[in-house]
Every structure is written in structure tokens, then in C-alpha cells.
Design brief:
Belongs to the uracil-DNA glycosylase (UDG) superfamily. Type 4 (UDGa) family. 44% of the residues lie in helices and 13% in strands. By secondary structure, the protein is of the alpha/beta class. The chain has a single domain, classed as Uracil-DNA glycosylase-like domain (Uracil-DNA Glycosylase, subunit E, 3-Layer(aba) Sandwich), CATH 3.40.470.10. Strands 2-1-3-5-4 form a 5-stranded mixed sheet, with helices on both faces. A hairpin with a 2-residue loop joins strand 4 (149-152) and strand 5. Helix 1 (5-20) runs antiparallel to helix 4. The two termini are 27 Å apart.
Length: 187
């Protein structure tokens, strides 16, 4: 029996409540707020990033800093709003010194991410950056898979650069925006 929308919403909130008090890896010691993610159930797209930054850690909300502003702009370019999508990360707490998350943290957070995928039920997943690509697809390099639709399990997946990299480097920005055009044609 499939759980109702209300049951899924309650289960997702339970997952998010566990994330907020999680102590499965060392990152809980330095966080202000865990950042479970946000957005509707059954969204057109679920975005999965690397992990929270300082602004996200301060507020408990995903992608609200400069990278989030760039993500919002890219969404608007293809006719989507932030309210239309679910946004989360591979790691739910700010990595130490803003560095790439360590495997122990990614592994600790993966059950939360898998629960989110099952409960949110996105039409399409967009992986933002190498950490997300490695977490979900096991791919070490995003360069070989970005810009391609991948079918895995019951999901359609598109990998692209992280918005932070797209903001900094023109070539990556151009590819990122091109990937978003592909995303728009798929949803």
C-alpha cells in the first residue's frame, strides 16, 4: 500500500527532525543548524548539492547564499520557481572550514538522502557538483557525465556543475546554463 501524501509529508518531517539532532559523524559538534532540505513532495526536480555553507548553517535552509541566488536565477531562466523544486544536499551539516565533505559524513547522511528520495518522489534529480554525483551515482568526476540524462533505478538524473563553480568560471557557467535548458525540456 502506498502511503498517502499526508503520510509521506509526516514521514519526511520525521526524517528532517532526525537530521536536526543527528550525531552520526563529527560535524554536529561545529554546526549551528543541520540543513535537511526543503520543498514540495512530488516536485518536478529534486536538486542535490554538496553540503551547507555558512549562511545555510546559520539559518538551517539550503542554498540561500550566493550559490543559492545563482541557482534561483537559473531556475527562473527556465520557468521554474524555488517553490516548484525540492533542494537538499549530500551532507546535512556544514563541513569543517567549508571543505569538501569527508566520506564518513557522506556515509552518515546517505540514509537521510535515500529516505528523502523515497518520500519526495521527484520526476527528475539534478546533481549539483562532484560530491552529489559521487554520492548518488558513484562517479568520481562530473566532467564525463554532466549534461547527459542518466537512467538509474527509477530515476532520471542530470548531473551538472555546482552553482558556486558556475558562478566563478565562465565555461562552467555556460555549461551549467546549457544543462538547465536540457533540464527544462525534460520536466
Amino acid at each position: 500500500m502506498n502511503p498517502s501524501l499526508q503520510q509521506r509529508l509526516e514521514q519526511l518531517e520525521e526524517v528532517h527532525a532526525r537530521v536536526r539532532v543527528c550525531r552520526l559523524c563529527y560535524l554536529w559538534k561545529t554546526r549551528q543548524n543541520a540543513v535537511p532540505g526543503e520543498g514540495p513532495l512530488d516536485p518536478k526536480v529534486m536538486f542535490i548539492g554538496e553540503g551547507p555553507g555558512k549562511k545555510e548553517d546559520a539559518t538551517g535552509r539550503p542554498f540561500i547564499g550566493y550559490s543559492g541566488q545563482f541557482l534561483n536565477e537559473a531556475l527562473e531562466r527556465i520557468g521554474l520557481r524555488r517553490d516548484d523544486v525540492f533542494i537538499t544536499s549530500s551532507v546535512k551539516c556544514l563541513p569543517v572550514n567549508g571543505r569538501k565533505p569527508k566520506p564518513v559524513s557522506i556515509e552518515a547522511c546517505n540514509p537521510y538522502l535515500q529516505s528523502q528520495l523515497q518520500l519526495v518522489r521527484p520526476r527528475l534529480i539534478c546533481l549539483l557538483g562532484g560530491v552529489a554525483a559521487e554520492t548518488v551515482l558513484g562517479e568520481k568526476s562530473i566532467s564525463g557525465i554532466r549534461g547527459k540524462m542518466i537512467e538509474r533505478d527509477q530515476y532520471r538524473i542530470l548531473a551538472t556543475f555546482h552553482p558556486a563553480a558556475a558562478r566563478r568560471f565562465k565555461k562552467r557557467r555556460d555549461d551549467f546554463l546549457k544543462d538547465f535548458e536540457l533540464l527544462a525540456r525534460q520536466v
